[in-house]
Design brief:
Layout (H helix, E strand, L loop, with lengths): L1 H14 L27 H15 L12 H8 L3 H11 L3 H7 L1
């Protein structure tokens, strides 16, 4: 039910032109959009990264100067896996449904 309401709200917003814009023509149903979407990072991973960076920069620390590898940084800052699945399922929208509301 919630997903249907979210889709209905999205379709309603997609059909309306934002203030200052006007609809010139319908887009091609076969057209593809390339989207780049920022996702929230794991709070625990960001906290762990901050802690590791603080230790590496602290001359009193045993790990002073032991910099993290690129792989270690990526592992700590990777998006939460469930976020990826949720994002992909939310972005997949049936073009026919969008056209029906245009």
């Amino acid at each position: 039910m919630r997903r249907a309401l979210t889709l209905a709200a999205t379709l309603a917003l997609a059909a309306a032109a934002p203030t200052g814009f006007r609809k010139l023509a319908s887009s091609d149903a076969r057209a593809q959009l390339k989207l780049q979407i920022a996702v929230k990072r794991s709070h625990a991973g960001v906290t762990a990264l901050e802690s590791a960076l603080t230790r590496v920069a602290d001359p009193e620390s045993r790990t002073f100067g032991a910099h993290l590898s690129l792989e270690e940084v990526r592992a700590l800052t990777a998006p939460v896996r469930v976020t990826d699945r949720t994002l992909v399922s939310g972005v997949r929208v049936d073009a026919k449904a969008l056209l029906a509301h245009a």
